[in-house]
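hiii, so i know i said id send this last week but things got crazy w the move. better late than never?? heres the sequnce for the chain we talked about at the cafe, plus the structure i predicted for it. fair warning i was half asleep when i ran it
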Amino acid sequence: MVQGKKKATSFTWLIASRLQDNSLTGNFSALVTRIAVASITIGVAAMILSFMIFEGFKHAIQEKIFSLAGHIRLTKFDGGSSPEGSPLSLNTQFLKKAPHIQGLARIEPYSQKSALLKTDEEVMGVLIKGIDSKSDSNFFAKNLISGRFLQFPDTAAHSPDLIVSKPIADKLKLQVGDRLTAYFIQKPPRARRLTICGIYQTGLEDFDEMVVLADNRMIQQLNRWGDTLTGGYEIYIRDFSKLAQVAEEVYDAMDYSMQMETVEGRYAHFFDWFIMLNRNVTVFLTIILSVAAFNTISILIILIMERTQMIGLLKAIGASNRQIKAIFFWKGMRILTRGLLWGNLLALGLAAVQYYFHLIPLDPENYYMETVPIQWDWLAFAIVNLLTTMVVGGAIFLPTILIVRITPVKAIRFN
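okay and structure toks below
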């Protein structure tokens, strides 16, 4: 019984492989086969590139956001709406519990304070974000377009360094090394002379139009907090996909006087945009898969109609409908396999060229980056290949239904 199945499989595979030989296949069959392979190739390449570009956009924008804002932010619960807020102690119960929270990478104290930056010719209102030596300079470095990161002296005095964005530097006509005066509206008013040590650009207006970075100790001294209070904690986690899970653990561990806000809630417009893009990619994927499946069905119907006499002859010599169906199924699978192979090679080749050489530019004002980003998402790569195999492979069965209706006598006389 097993040998019989092996012989049947060998028979169907032999016929299918002979159909693939261009020397034994008509020019028209060869042409439509190439069209089917090309349609699958283009569809697979387009789907893979769509996922890579979408993930590239999402990853690039998220990295820009995370370089200036933690995944989770804890502040004092005071019911106010001021960006400065009330201070938190640097010796809270939460900090003692934090090491036991799985997935938590680091905690950075920060403070915020409104100020006016004044040069000889211009004045501009900004939000100064105070950070300390615990901040990851490597994480922020990719945003620097000139200068360096803040340097924190070992003494009690705060650093005079200030990092401003390119839009702010352009409006105030500042360069690295220039000095300016920062005025703080409080009682009594205070002023500090600061030096521009770096200029950054994220392309995100939420940050570039308003946020500048300085030493957290300056804000502590201005607010007379000493070194035991800070504006809040920014918490970074190892795996952003587990944000909800870690946020729940942070919520359970935080002090009763604290309030929590996740980056998804603080910058909801960006993450809502990601959801919309994801839906567009899903629709695009569905359309391409449908077209690829329809093209494959059409090609196989044409091949079956062209090979009607062969089908009749095979039935006349004893071949079953199941065997003949298997012949055209293997023919369709060879078309699918070739399309997948060339589609993957084309997608990976184009992605590599864009990844390394940045040939396709973008308008930073509209897309937040200068070139089309590529993210090597191998999970999406595998999903595209699996879905294509399932959908197109399943569609290959449909045309073979016609084989049952072909009778040997009519088929042999068919011209």
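btw The chain has a mean pLDDT of 87. thought thatd interest u
miss u guys!!
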